[in-house]
Write a structure and sequence with these properties.
This protein has about 180 residues and is mostly helical. It is built from six helices and five strands, in the order αββααβααββα. The protein has a three-stranded mixed β-sheet. Helix 2 packs antiparallel against helix 3, helix 2 packs across helix 5 and helix 4 packs antiparallel against helix 5. It is elongated, with a radius of gyration of 25 Å. It starts with a helix and ends with a helix.
Length: about 180
């Protein structure tokens, strides 16, 4: 009887609030986060990967404390606690799965850092996010603008937008 009861118990690592442990969950096993999706900045939708939160947190701590800081047990424990807290907060918002935007995840990481008292790391994290946002905006402004030119009955070639304005103006004048 006891043997049958233990067979039905889940072997996947869980947090205290019945949320899968993001640090202990391995990507090769069936992912307990498959029901959660993330909308990336480019609009694509991917499966939620909590390990990426741990990676981002570790990078933030490295930026503040240097490489040796990341090797410390305190930082590893803090990253694990923060990652678990962030994932738990996200799962509480959508307990049955759903889709969240990458910005929402990053906002939650930022909030977790501030609440834990890691203000220097939070500041570095916020500044890095802002720098990346500026960089993305700058690269978008350098993208080529696609213009469609048309040749009207009068033989004049111009941008379709300008041609449409001209036709609309002409039509309005006739009405």
């Amino acid at each position: 009887m006891l043997h049958a009861a233990t067979d039905s118990v889940s072997t996947s690592p869980m947090l205290a609030n019945n949320v899968p442990d993001p640090v202990s969950s391995s990507p090769s096993s069936s992912n307990p986060f498959d029901q959660y999706k993330v909308i990336r900045r480019n609009g694509s939708v991917v499966i939620f990967e909590p390990a990426k939160i741990s990676i981002a947190l570790t990078k933030a701590f490295i930026a503040v404390n240097g490489g040796q800081g990341a090797a410390s047990a305190r930082v590893r424990e803090m990253v694990e606690q923060l990652a678990n807290g962030v994932v738990s907060a996200l799962m509480r918002r959508q307990p049955h799965g759903g889709t969240m935007h990458i910005e929402d995840i990053q906002d939650q990481v930022e909030l977790g850092l501030m609440r834990s008292g890691e203000h220097d790391v939070a500041r570095t994290y916020v500044l890095y996010r802002e720098e990346r946002a500026r960089s993305r905006a700058k690269s978008r402004s350098k993208e080529p603008v696609h213009i469609i030119n048309v040749t009207g009955e009068d033989g004049v070639e111009m941008c379709i937008r300008d041609r449409c304005r001209m036709v609309c103006w002409w039509w309005m004048e006739k009405a």
